[in-house]
Amino acid sequence: MSSPEYRWLWPSALAADPAGPLGARRSTRDWVVDSLCFLLGIGCTVWITVELLDPGSSTTQAWGPVPRWLVIADASAGVIGALGLWWRRRFLALLAVYLVLLTTFSLASAVTVLIVVFTVGVHRRFAVLAGYVAAILAANAVFPLLRPDSGVGYVEAFAWGASTTVMAALWGMLVRGRRQLIVTWRDRAERAEAEQRLRVAQARVLERTRIAREMHDVLAHRISLLSLHAGALEFRPGAPPEEIAGAAAVVRSSAHQALQDLRAVIGVLRTGQPEDEQAPERPQPTLSALPALADESRSAGIRVRLEIAPAPETVPAATGRAAYRIVQEGLTNARKHAPGAAVRVAVGGAAGDGLTIEVRNPMPLTVPARPIPGTGMGLIGLTERAHLAGGRLDHGRVDDDFVLHAWLPWPP
């Protein structure tokens, strides 16, 4: 807590060097407090010295005639103590020991002693303060013997000195406790803000991961359609104009939709955009969108047989979204690795038993000479999506077919 930003709340006297590194500059508050303490100490010393030098003053009448040499010695020692208040943050230990010795005979340094007791109470722990107060009280016990007050007795003089010393110490403890409490509150507030920023950052990372997964699922589906139709145009340059025009229309439509999806994703991923200016997220497709997905694949030349046993509106939205993405990725993989093959999509299940999805297509007879970019990444993403939804996903070869099988929870 000795960093500069906490210095005004928690003075670094708790460390070995109370004022921080040598040559450290005082803050504005330090200048004001140190100046006030110095003026109080030197002012009290000068006032008491003038009173003791005046034979008719009330102070001289109370304490009796004081030798001039003792008044001058008392004033000189008091001035040194008051000057030491200016560097009390740096040399507090030396100043405190000096004033203990001075308290045994000095009357002019009374206010300076109280300021140092208060400073020890603020800057040091209770054990150090208690020891120092005990030393001051011992010095106060000697003072009435060396310089008795003609107006009061020994006990009353000692009681006055002891009470003012204890009051200064308690005041210092009160200020120290308040500063500790303020630092504790600030530390808790900063930790809470840091934890909140960390939670926000984690939420952003999770949301962007989800968006990236959605982008892969959507764009992979669109681009696979583009690749399929572009390949048909490449290998059938002599096809009838109607077929070429139809394929070109599908390519244009798929490219347009892919660009729209990509623009939406990039818009969400932009940093620095205020939340209230972001466009609302479009509704995500569920089981009710599977027929349109199958029709889109059929328009690309894929033979798709779709079987949906449960009514789409009865399936929970989160489960339906996960099922849609699984089917979409299964159809994309079939177009990539088994073009022209018949694909069977079966969705079944009931509330309480869970929802099952199976995408089956024959294994390809030939292996492409060059590996398809991104192969296997979609299945990894689907496996993670199924696990996050509380389900499971398996894929592999069964007899002569490639089967993608998933199970998702469906609460009763």
From TrEMBL:
Coiled-coil stretches noted in the UniProt entry, renumbered to this chain: none
Transmembrane segments: 31-49, 69-87, 94-120, 126-146, 153-174
Top enzyme category: transferase
Domain Signal transduction histidine kinase subgroup 3 dimerisation and phosphoacceptor, chain residue ranges per copy: 207-272
GO molecular function, one term: phosphorelay sensor kinase activity
Keywords, in A-Z order: ATP-binding, Kinase, Membrane, Nucleotide-binding, Phosphoprotein, Transferase, Transmembrane, Transmembrane helix, Two-component regulatory system
GO cellular component, one term: membrane
Substrates-to-products reaction catalysed: ATP + protein L-histidine = ADP + protein N-phospho-L-histidine
Protein name: histidine kinase
Species of the source: Actinoplanes philippinensis
